[in-house]
Amino acid sequence: MTKQEFLSELERALGKLPHTEVEQALAFYDEAISDRMEDGLSEAEAVAGLGSIEEIAAQIAAETPPIPRAIARANTGSRTLNIVLLAVFSPIWVPVALAFAAAALAVYVAIWAVIAVLWAVDAVLVLMPFAGLASLTALIGGGNPATGAFVLGITLIVSGVGLLASFGVFGASRLLFQLTRSFARWIAGLFVRVSGDDAEAPNRMKADGTPNTPDHAENTPSVHDTLPEGGVRNA
After folding, report:
1. Long-range contacts of the stretch 174-180 (C-beta < 8 A, 24+)
2. What's the CA gap between 147 and 8, in Å, rounded?
3. Does residue 106 or residue 63 have the better pLDDT?
4. DSSP for 83-145?
5. CA-CA distance, 185 to 22, in Å (whole number)?
6. How far apart are CA 126 and CA 144, in angstroms?
7. Phi/psi at 99 (nearest 5 deg)?
8. Is 207 exposed, middle or buried (0-12, 13-18, 19+ CB in 10 A)?
9. What's the confidence (pLDDT) of residue 192?
10. For residue 190, what pLDDT is reported?
């Protein structure tokens, strides 16, 4: 199979994926094949080393965000018909979209509300000695200093507990903050490709921007690997 045949079949296999995803995939595999040919492989060997087009298309589809993928599949190819269908089905998809947005916002706000409540409660505990001092002053004025001293002691103990609890609140806040980031990334991932660490990044591009061909393609030896010393291929 030639490179052009491979790219044409890949474009057909990608079907109704978003146009940008298709163009990026074609450009990537065009470059990947050219790079392998520069390493000495023939055009047919470079293409064959990439694997089956069905597997490649399935991988690209899996990496495409769900919302753009669904929109692309629903595309009729006619701008006018697309607008008509959007208008006709707006009583269905508009409430669903609004409900989803409201639910996502409610979850996000709820997580931050928990963080705020934790710190507010901890702050009240830590500042309790001020209430104890006020009680002590009032009770001394009322002729009951022993009770005032007892109340102050209790508030100091409570303040100490609050200070110790601050470490737990700080840890819980960090976890909840990470949860909000993960939740926000999940929401964004429904619409756009969200870049993460190297383990989660799509396999079509390396960190330095060079093509990252599939594992089975990486393991295919190049001509340089198969030639004996001296550069002459054995018969």
Report:
1. 176/111, 176/112, 176/114, 176/115, 177/115, 179/111, 180/108, 180/111, 180/112
2. 88
3. 106
4. HHHHHHTHHHHHHHHHHHHHHHHHHHHHHHHHHHHHHHHHHHHHTHHHHHHHHHHHHHHTT-H
5. 23
6. 25
7. -65, -40
8. exposed
9. 82
10. 85
The pair of three-digit structure tokens given for residue 166, joined into one six-digit string? 């601050």
- Cβ count near 155 (within 10 Å): 21
Tokens 């550069």 label which residue?
231
Residues 37, 41, 44, 47: is their CA dihedral positive or negative? Answer: negative
Tokens of 30: 């065009």
The CA distance from 127 to 148, in Å, is 17
Mean pLDDT of the region 33-45: 92
Residue 215 has pLDDT above 90, yes or no: no
**pLDDT at residue 6 greater than cutoff 60:** yes
Q: What's the token pair of residue 224?
A: 């340089």
Give one DSSP letter per residue of 11-80, joined into a string.
HHHHTTS-HHHHHHHHHHHHHHHHHHHHTT--HHHHHHTT--HHHHHHHHHHHS-HHHHHHHHH--S-HH
Give the largest Cα separation in the chain, rounded. Answer: 112
pLDDT digit string, tens, across residues 49-62: 999 999 998 898 88
Record the pTM.
Answer: 0.58
Half-sphere exposure of 215 (CA within 13 A, CB side): 2
- 53-87: burial string, b at 16+ Cβ within 10 Å, e else: beebbebbbebbbeebbeebeeeeeeeeeeeeeee
